[in-house]
Every structure is written in C-alpha cells, then in structure tokens.
Amino acid sequence: MATKKLLIVESPAKAGTIKKYLGKDYTVMASMGHIIDLPKSQMGVDLENDFTPRYITIRGKGPLLTQLKKEAKKADKVYLATDPDREGEAISWHLANALNIDPDSDCRVTFNEITKNAVKSAIKTPRSIDMDLVDAQQARRVLDRIVGYTLSPILWEKVKRGLSAGRVQSVATKLICDREEEIENFTPQEYWTIEATMTEPSSRKDFIAKYYGENGSEIKINNAEEAAKITSDIKDAEFVVEKVKRGQQKRNPQPPFTTSTLQQDASRKYNFQAAKTMQIAQTLYEGVNIGGKIGSIGLITYMRTDSLRIADDAQKEAVDYLTNTYGSEYVNPKQYKTKKSAQDAHEAIRPTSISIKPIDIKDKLTNDQYRLYKLIWERFAASQMSSAVYDTMQTTIRAGRHTFKASGSNVKFKGYMTVYVESADEKEAKSKMLPPLEENQRLKLKCSEEKQHFTQPPARYSDATLIRELEENGIGRPSTYAPTISTIVSRGYVVRNKKQLIPTELGFVTSEIMKNNFSDIVDVEFTADMEQELDNVEEGSLEWKKVLNDFYPSFCDSLEKAQKNIEKIQIKDEESDVVCEKCGRKMVYKLSKFGKFLACPGYPECKNTKTIREGTGAMCPKCGGEILVKKSRRGKIYYGCEHSPKCDFMLWDMPVKDEECPQCGGLLLKKQGKRGKIYCHNEDCKYERKLKENE
Known about the structure:
Layout: E1 5-9, H1 12-22, E2 26-30, E3 36-37, E4 45-46, E5 52-53, E6 56-57, H2 62-74, E7 77-80, H3 86-98, H4 116-124, H5 131-158, H6 167-185, E8 190-200, E9 205-214, E10 217-218, H7 224-234, E11 239-251, H8 259-270, H9 274-286, E12 288-289, E13 296-297, H10 312-326, H11 367-383, E14 388-399, E15 402-413, H12 426-429, E16 442-454, H13 463-472, H14 481-490, E17 494-497, E18 500-503, H15 505-517, H16 524-539, H17 544-565, E19 575-579, E20 586-592, E21 595-599, E22 609-611, E23 615-619, E24 626-631, E25 637-641, E26 650-651, E27 654-660, E28 667-671, E29 677-680, E30 688-690
Helix pairs in contact: 3-5, 5-16, 5-17, 6-14, 6-15, 8-13, 9-11
C-alpha cells in the first residue's frame, strides 16, 4: 500500500504547480505565509524573561491550521517546503511545533527553483529544521518588535497618531531627509564649456571636440567673459592634430541579478516600484502554465537573494544553448564573486531553463511578467557571454595655445551586447567613431559654441538609488528593501513624485526626533553592524538572545530620556479648497494606509470624510458623467465614470478632454509610451495620430 505524504508550501500558486509534479500519493497544501506569529495588539515579547516571544495563532488562520492538523494526522510523512530563507525556516519551525513534528527529523525540504527535477530531487534529500536560521529570524523579529512597539507610542503622543518607527525604515527616512537638506543647502557654481565642430578635409566628416585648456594643462572656464576670450582667440587659429591614440577597450558583462540589482534595473528600465518588481517575480518563481508538454513551471529561481552563484548544471545548459545559438566565440562561462556579507544559500536570480525563451512564451504571460522575465533571461544569458570589444580613438587638437580633445568608439565585436545592453552601456553603444585623423593634420573649424552650465545638487533618491544605497551600506537584506520603501511612503514620511522620493514635513520631524533621541537607531554604521550580528546568528557563531541583551539596556536609557525631553509637536494638516457640506469648514488632507482622503478638521464634533476626486474633464460616452482617475486594488490607475457602479464605463488609457475625434466625434484616448498615440475609443473608427511633443 502506497504511503500518503503531505507537503506544505507557503502559497496556493506554488502548491498548484508542485501538485502536478508529485502525483496522487501527495497532498500539497499552502500555509498562506505565517500561521503563528507575535500578536498585533501587544508587544508579545517578555522583556523580563530573557526576551521570550509569546507566539499565537494569527487571527483568521485557526480553520486553516485545523485543516493542516487533520491532513497531517492522515499522512505517513509530512514535508515542510516553505521558502528557502530565514522567514521560510521560521514558518516551517512553527508548523512543526503546531503539527507535532519533531524539528530534528528529516521533515524540511527546500528548492531554489520550482521545476519537476528540482522538486523531486529535494524530496529525496530532506533535512532537519535549521535552528540557526530560525534563531536569526527570531532575533530580527523580536528586535524590530521592541523598537517598533516602544518608539511608535512616543511618536503618537508627541507628534501624531498612526506613526511608526523601525530599525530599517528610520534609517531609510533619514537618508532621504539628509539628501533633501543637501539639495536645499546646495549653492550652484557657474561654469562654461566650449564645443568646436571641426571638419576632417579628406573625408569631409564633421566631429565635435571639447575645450580642454591651455598649453596642455586643463583649465576651468568660470564665466562668459573667459569663454568669449577663448572663442575670440581660436576664431582665426590653425587647428592641428597634436596626438592620436588608437586602441581597443573591453566591456565585460554584468553578473546575473540579485534582488537588489533586479529591483534597480526594473526601476530604471520599466519604472517599476520595488514592491511591484517583487510581486511579479514571485509569480514567475511560483509557477506559470506555459502549455505544451511542460505545462506549469517556475520560470525563475528564488528571487530573494544577494548571491551571484550559478549552479553548475544551469551554467552548462547556458553554455550549450549560447554556443548553438550564437557560436563559441560569443561564449565565456564564468562564476562571479559574491561579496562577503552575502548569504550564499541561494543562487543568483536566473531562468530555471535558458531554453525557455521569453519570446516563445510571450502569449502565456502578462505584459509585466514578460518584461521582467525577459530582463532576467537576457541578463543571465549575457553574464555567460564574451566581453564586447570597442575600437577607440582619442585625439588632442591644438589651436594656438589652446587645446581641445575628442574621443570616439565603435563596436568591433558585440559579444554579450548581442543579447543585453546594460543601462550604463546605452550611451557608449550609441557612440560614433571619429573620422580618420593623423598627427600634424590640419583641420577646418566649422563653428564653435559656448555653453553656460551650473553645478547640480545631488539627485533625490529613487527606488533604484535608495536600494543601492541601503545595500552598499549593509542596511537590510534582500527581503526588506521593497517593504521598507512601501512603509515609509504609506506612513506619509515620504511622497513619490514620478521616480523621486521626497520627504514630507512629517518625515523631517520624525527623522529629527530619531536623530536627537535615538541616534543609534538611525546610524547607518550601527544598523549595518546589527545586520552583521543577525548574519552571525544565522551562521551559528552568535546566540540570538545575546544580540538582544547587548542592545536593550542602552536603548532603554534612550527611551526614558526621550520620554522626558521630546516636546509635543503640532503638525498642521494641509488644507484643501473643498468645503465640508456639514459644518462649513475647509476640509484637510489626511493619510491612511489606503492613501490620501479628505476629512473635516472639526473632528470629533464633525466626522465628515470624503475620497479625493480627481477628474479628467472628459465626459462618459454612456451616461454623460465625468470620467475620473481611479485606482484598482493593486494600485494600478484606470479611468471610470463618476456614476459607477450604476455606469460600468471604464478605460485603461487616459481620455482626452476638450477634443473630439475629427472623423466620428467620439471620445479620444491617449496611449503613453515610446509609441504613444491619440486614438478614437469607437472601435468602428480607425482614427489615430502620433503624440505631439507638448502632449
């Protein structure tokens, strides 16, 4: 008689994919993330009893836990196959305790990718639960709980209810506030450049050389007078090629993605927020039905990783595929060096099979899934390919005592750039070679142009640059970057303006309180050291409660001083021009976890609230109501009638106001992007035109 086995994973999507691999002897269930955790209503940590956590079954998860217990009793063997990281290990440990499974037994199964071979291979080699991983998670959870649940009430009392503080989010907010102060305090410095357009006589090709200095020494041009003097000097000067240097330059491919670099590149190329990138990556990891013989399969490896390691079999498959597709001269397999602080338990993010080309499964993926999978596939393929080779030329040109310089390049061998162009390579990829120049050759000056510039302040952080800053400083780990940014935005400490993260008055006030009273919490070096200690717990070289015992006494002192020293701060709500119809006051903007809304400032006497209405000025073709800007549950913008749900008219593209279709008089829509256009909503009308520059 066949043995009955129960395999527990975290998500239903993953359960569905894996069930198809294992057959009728296996029941596959999802825990839906954590089932047991610290309570939300209280700290849940016994500070007097060596920081012992008080775990409870999460509200609403009781019926699921009962069902899991029922299935576990029926099974001859239970496998815990939650995610392969600290959080997943802790979920498995909680499940083991709840289901009466010995944590030291061979009950834990991990796989870095959800493919048939990976899953079946993992089940053949189960292990016991890794208590070092569990303890690292407990240390982080308890540490963050102590900080959050003791600091947040102080902020509620002294500043505003609903605020929160946390180890990583407070550092991130401080970084953004510090950058804003740098920008505000920045004093621009004027400088000028001169570009000379020259013609090489034999080829008659023009090229641009930039002013360098006098007599071979670099000179900065500070003002218009200095620029005009140089322009006057070179007007009748003879331009002679003084030096020509030809060479070759290699550009090496970047390693495959880690969590951080994937979030950064998706932000730069697709304007994805970090949370969106992780959400899409999760679906690619858990499994997509791509049809054919393959059916459901996880398309990428585990997406929370800071390792650059590539499995030997994946590398071999890549080498074979790339050799057959592009030729051996394009292939250069390599393993990349992972930084010391990285957790090397996982591989880098890569496709589970390089033979599953993005274009072949495009119709099986959403547009966002396709774009992210394509990015991951191309970056991995490029990482195992040869360097690109450029022919380069640099020249120095003399005009009397003045010196100009020019450089150019062209691609001699594309190498990895056949597949993938890094963000940093895009400008160089478009660079042109200079015309053929020889030393002592005379050139003709076609024209020169003086340009005024001012030094620029440092740029505000975006998702991509903030994640890079956090990673470079050792703050947080792959799983924390996206939630950290989401938290500081949802709490109102930071607002988004296109890609920029801009601190609010609330963010400045909160950050200042933290700097003045809890300097360790917002200190970059202290936070990085704490992350290292948590890593040491994971490696088994440090006891997790020692981390807490070392941290808590000085934190407690700061807490007592802050309670006495922080004065109550009143932050005025931003006033709107909307009048409360119940009491006549001007309504103010408030922030909740669902976003901004309008509220009467007369609370609690007047409790009137309103959603913020953002009109488009365009009229609904069904009922004549105004079309409003709306957001879906997942935060995606769409356009719907003000009379919804009575009127079900909705659009994904923006309606155009004050303009009708010139052919049928219908509603016009604007499609944004590289191929942006204005087109008619009426399906029977084929009118469309390209977007103008001012649109």
